[in-house]
């Protein structure tokens, strides 16, 4: 039940409002009650003292009860209370209630006793007779130190309690009204808040079911809006990755099928036909050639998918030493093809923090292409330019060059300007894609610096230089 944000919010807010209103109400009522009671008491006391002062000279033996009752009645009218005057013997000698009053009776009350002893008697009592709460005050009447009697005042607290009840009712009603109002607001607000979350959940569910075309409308710039935005970006990325994966698998299957089909044909011929030893040798060589291509292809594919593992093996290395190592390895091939190899490697090249295997792979692939696509008798040049922020390696050749419209696709997987030629030369179409993947992962860039068909091309790649990377201690 409490699994819904909307419900949790509504309950929390309502409880909060109820608690605040209840606490404020209780404090307010308490303060009001105290205020009313003390002001009623003050009122009674003031009138009591006035009466006491007034009647002091009339009290004593043989006091005129009619006169005293008149005085009591006059004063009582001003404050809507009953005033009773008693003698030091607690006998009632004056009463504002003329009919059915207490004249002549003895008033045995705690408040009266207190007043006769010189203090002020006070009490709040429930009167069963009149079915209401009453406030009673008793004031002494004195001449010097002699007690002449006391004035007893009693007034109903009904108006006070009526007001307090009205206030209590008002507070209760306003609490209920504000709870209903706030409850409505919270439900609306929570709906506004959770609607996009519900939409997100539904979209995520659809994506989990393989429907990758999910987009969520973005209606706000707040956290939820940003979440929706990120969801859309993620959904687009997932879709794109899915498409790329499908295309990649398609491309791979296609690339595998051609050599496999050739091998299959060769094997069938070997099996089904009477062939001369020479013909058999030719078929076997074809099988060998196609198998070699399959091995290259699988190796390059592994290279493309194994990237993460290799990049963990980063180390500080000298760019110059690494370039010379790769050049040494390629030199025999260059010479076999009758090409000339020039180098322009300046001193003081920076040290790089990089996986040597990966960097070798990039340089090797570029040199391999230059050798492959340059006809016999041409030349190649490997150059390096070092700047404060990056280092640029260039590989120039006098090969076939690249048509302008092909340049944007060169670094895509399996793209080859001349498929048959590349295949014949043992290419897989993955070399430049691997280079791009590696270089970009290290924050560098790769591209064609210049090319002219039939004249040659210059490829380049850059890598960022971190001046804080120093020569490793072993080489010092
Ligand atoms: N130095 C170059 N001169 C001419 N064409 C090149 C050169 N390097 C690459 N190419 C073109 O780019 C394509 C992609 O290169 P690459 O990804 O290394 O694949 P592969 O070398 O296996 O064919 C090549 O097939 C070729 O058409
Ligand atoms: Mg290549």
Explain what you see.
The protein has helices spanning 5-55, 65-79, 110-116, 158-208, 223-272, 277-305, 307-311, 319-336, 356-372, 419-424, 431-441, and strands at residues 82-86, 92-95, 121-127, 132-143, 146-156, 315-318, 340-344, 351-354, 379-386, 390-397, 445-452, 456-464. 24% of the residues are buried. It has eleven helices and twelve strands. It is an alpha+beta fold. The chain has a five-stranded antiparallel beta sheet with strand order 2-1-5-4-3, with helices on both faces. Strands 7-9-10-12-11 form a five-stranded mixed beta sheet. The protein has three domains: 5-162, 2-Layer Sandwich (Beta-Lactamase); 212-305, Signal transduction histidine kinase, dimerisation/phosphotransfer (DHp) domain (Helix Hairpins, Orthogonal Bundle), CATH 1.10.287; 313-475, Heat Shock Protein 90 (2-Layer Sandwich). Bound molecules: adenosine-5'-diphosphate and magnesium ion (MG). The site of magnesium ion (MG) has 5 residues, from helix 9.
Give the CATH H-level superfamily of the largest domain: Histidine kinase-like ATPase, C-terminal domain
The ordered string of helix (H) and strand (E) elements is: HHEEHEEEHHHHEHEEHEEHHEE
The structure class reads: alpha+beta
As laid out across the biggest beta sheet, the strand order is: 2-1-5-4-3
Q: DSSP helix count?
A: 11
Task: Kindly report the average pLDDT value.
Answer: 90
Query: Can you tell me the CATH topology of the largest domain?
Result: Heat Shock Protein 90
Number of strands: 12
Bound molecules: adenosine-5'-diphosphate, magnesium ion
CATH architect. name of the largest domain: 2-Layer Sandwich
Overall helicity: 40-55%
Hey, roughly how much beta strand do the residues contain?
Answer: 15-25%
Cα-based radius of gyration, to the nearest Å: 53 Å
Cα(first) to Cα(last) distance is 71 Å
């Amino acid at each position: 039940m409490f699994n819904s944000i909307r419900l949790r919010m509504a309950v929390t807010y309502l409880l909060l409002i109820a608690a605040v209103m209840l606490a404020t109400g209780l404090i307010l009522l308490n303060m009001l009650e105290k205020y009313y009671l003390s002001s009623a008491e003050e009122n009674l006391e003031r009138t009591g003292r006035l009466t006491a002062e007034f009647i002091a000279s009339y009290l004593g033996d043989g006091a005129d009860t009619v006169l005293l009752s008149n005085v009591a009645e006059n004063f009582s009218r001003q404050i809507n209370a009953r005033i009773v005057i008693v003698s030091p013997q607690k006998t009632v000698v004056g009463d504002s209630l003329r009919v059915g009053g207490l004249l002549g009776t003895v008033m045995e009350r705690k408040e009266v006793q207190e007043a006769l002893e010189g203090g002020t008697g006070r009490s709040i009592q429930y009167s069963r007779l009149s079915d209401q709460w009453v406030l009673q005050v008793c004031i002494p009447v004195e001449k010097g130190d002699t007690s002449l009697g006391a004035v007893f005042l009693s007034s109903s607290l009904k108006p006070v309690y009526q007001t307090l009840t009205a206030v209590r009712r008002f507070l209760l009603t306003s609490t209920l009204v504000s709870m209903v109002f706030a409850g409505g607001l919270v439900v609306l607000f929570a709906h506004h808040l959770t609607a996009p979350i519900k939409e997100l959940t539904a979209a995520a569910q659809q994506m989990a079911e393989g429907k990758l075309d999910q987009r969520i409308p973005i209606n706000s710039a707040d956290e939820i809006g940003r979440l929706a935005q990120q969801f859309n970006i993620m959904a687009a990325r997932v879709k794109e990755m899915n498409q790329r994966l499908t295309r990649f698998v398609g491309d791979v299957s296609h690339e595998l099928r051609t050599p496999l089909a050739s091998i299959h044909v060769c094997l069938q011929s070997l099996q089904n036909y009477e062939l001369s030893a020479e013909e058999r040798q030719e078929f076997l060589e074809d099988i060998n050639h196609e198998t070699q291509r399959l091995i290259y292809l699988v190796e390059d594919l592994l290279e493309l998918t194994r990237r993460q593992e290799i990049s963990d093996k980063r180390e500080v290395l000298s760019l110059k030493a690494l370039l010379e190592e790769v050049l040494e390895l390629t030199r025999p091939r260059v010479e076999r093809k009758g090409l000339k190899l020039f180098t322009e490697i300046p001193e003081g090249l920076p040290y790089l923090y990089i996986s040597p295997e990966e960097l070798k792979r990039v340089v090797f692939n570029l040199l391999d292409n230059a050798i492959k696509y340059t006809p016999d008798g041409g030349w190649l040049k490997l150059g390096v330019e070092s700047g404060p922020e990056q280092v640029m390696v260039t590989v120039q050749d006098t090969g076939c060059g690249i048509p302008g419209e092909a340049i944007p696709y060169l670094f895509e997987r399996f793209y080859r300007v001349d498929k048959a030629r590349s295949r014949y030369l043992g290419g897989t179409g993955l070399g430049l894609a691997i280079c791009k993947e590696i270089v970009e992962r290290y924050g560098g860039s790769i591209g064609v610096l210049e090319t002219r068909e039939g004249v040659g091309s210059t490829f380049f790649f850059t890598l960022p230089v971190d001046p804080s990377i120093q020569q490793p201690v072993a080489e010092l």
